[in-house]
Amino acid sequence: MDTMLSSVLPVFYGGLGNLAAYLAAHVLLCLLPAFFIAGAMSALIPKETVTRFLGRNSSKAVSYPAAAAAGSLLAVCSCTIVPLFAGIYKKGAGLGPAITFLFFAPAANILALVYTGGIIGPDLAAARFLLSLTFGIGIGLIMALIFRSDDAAHDRATDTAFGAQGAGMGRMALVFLFVWVALLLAGTLKLDVLTGTYLDVRLPLADAQGWQAVLDRLVPYDAARGEEGVSLQGVVLIGLLGAIGFAAWRGLENIADGANAWTWISLALIAATLLVAALAVQPVEGGLRVGLTGKFFGVAAALAVLSYIVRHRLNEDELRDWLWESWRFVKQIFPLLVVGVFIVGMIRVLIRPEWIQMLAGTNSLTGNLAGVVFGVFMYFPTLVEVPIAKMFLELGMHRGPLLAYLMSDPELSLQSILIISAIIGRRKTFTYVGLVALFSAAAGLIYGAWIDGVSLLMLALYLAGFIALLAVLLSVASRNASSLKGI
Q1: CA separation for the pair 444, 438 (Å, rounded)
Q2: Which residues, 6 or more positions from 282, have their beta carbon under 8 angstroms from its beta carbon?
Q3: 219 contact partners, CB below 8 Å, separation of at least 6
Q4: Residue pair 19/341 in contact by the 8 Å Cβ criterion
Q5: pLDDT (tens digit, 9 = 90+) per residue, 212-258?
Q6: Do residues 295 and 366 share a domain?
Q7: What is the mean pLDDT of the segment spanning 425-429?
Q8: Where in the cell is it found (predicted)?
């Protein structure tokens, strides 16, 4: 019994530690704005505004590049992209462009590419961009082809849900959405002007360093393994997150009946929590140093503008619809996120990076598939995957499987798979996961072959063979779908 407990408890603690670190470091400035952006897209943007650029009947030469371009500007991880994906899909975006946005945004946004080039090399960054763009559009096109009947039904359903809205998007709704996106970028971009501290305040908490030492023992910090730990600031933020959940449940669950005191309390708690999350807090000898960063001032300015719009420019119906849609996304996505992050934390305790050299030391099909599998079960938040990839490279991973890992890690985390399944259904999700795994492994094989000195002609033949195989599989899938439809 004791032996079993000694084996099980570290795995369980690994799950709890990973969940605590994720909630403390990534939910607030990333996920909360994403929920409100998704809610605003669902409630305030007419369907025609979305379908003009991303609809299933829009020109493919417009919709797919537009989806990739929108995703390239958002330096956020897959868990933050999923609510935005849900927002545009619910509002009438075609499945194909929505999938391209879902794939490309975390895999090859501008900041991830710059960081990859600086840490690992410009050749890998270029390959990551070109192959993510090509394959992201390809995956979207394939999904739209396979599920074209479902996509048409979804398009009709959004017509029914939102009615025939002939008017364009209101100017205030556009400003409201733009300010939320600005807040998201201010809270997540790693720019010197945002991360720099402009004013320090020292709080006289003599035991601050001792408390942090206790937290470090409970949830270890190890940057080389992607373990982020939990800070004193993180503990405060987790407590505030719990308070937000209670207030939102009391104030948003019945928002259709109108706003109440709890509604405004929940919004005030959210604003205060975002400000706390934007501070730079560090235990020092004899106290706690609190720094006002550029991020703090950017978030504060955005919140001030949002507060004015909510109180003076949104009417009662718009406010109610926005809050309800945002709360609905939270209820749909957040529980699955918690479960997924916890499971990933347990699995990461069992996986050893030393296995990398044995499984992915050569540019083989097995090695690239291993890179994809590591991307699923060793998920790291955006940008953290780059130094982890550097560690994998130093442990002996070939650069081909390394690219397969970098393309799959932001896409196929276990929690993201669970959430996407709740949005588009298990059949589409399993197809998407299979396509991402296939394309990521193919990208790794192609890039790895180039690294190993294979000529461009041979690479072209490899790619042609891959496309031919894919065409055959699609043909079979299309025939099967047609035959099932006729039954």
Answers
A1: 10
A2: 288, 289, 291
A3: 17, 20, 21, 227, 229, 230
A4: yes
A5: 888 888 887 765 555 667 888 989 999 999 999 999 999 999 898 88
A6: no
A7: 91
A8: Cell membrane
**R_g (Cα) of the chain, nearest Å:** 23
pLDDT at 201 over 60: yes
Residue whose pair of structure tokens reads 């442990």 in the numeric block? 395
Among 280, 67, 75, which residue's Cα sits nearest to residue 181?
75
Rounded alpha-carbon distances, angstroms, from residue 369 to 381, 382, 434: 21, 21, 11
Domain assignment of residue 201, yes or no: yes
Residues 295 and 405 in one domain: no
Helix (H) or strand (E) holding 288: strand 287-293
Confidence of residue 487 (pLDDT cuts 50, 70, 90): very low
Same domain, 321 and 383: no
Quote the domain boundaries for residue 255. Answer: 170-328
Distance, CA of 333 to CA of 6 (rounded, Å) = 33
Mark whether 262 and 307 lie in a shared domain.
yes
Burial of residue 174, with CB atoms counted within 10 A of its CB: 0-12 exposed, 13-18 middle, 19 or more buried: middle
Q: Could you tell me if 322 and 428 lie in one domain?
A: no
Is 468 found in the same domain as 425? yes
Residues 321 and 361 in one domain: no
Q: What is the pLDDT of residues 303-334, one digit of tens each?
A: 999 999 999 988 888 899 999 989 988 888 78
Report whether 374 contacts 410 (CB < 8 A): no
From 444, 441, 420, 434, select the one nearest 473 (Cα to Cα).
434
Residue 335 has which token pair?
């529980």
pLDDT of amino acid 478: 60
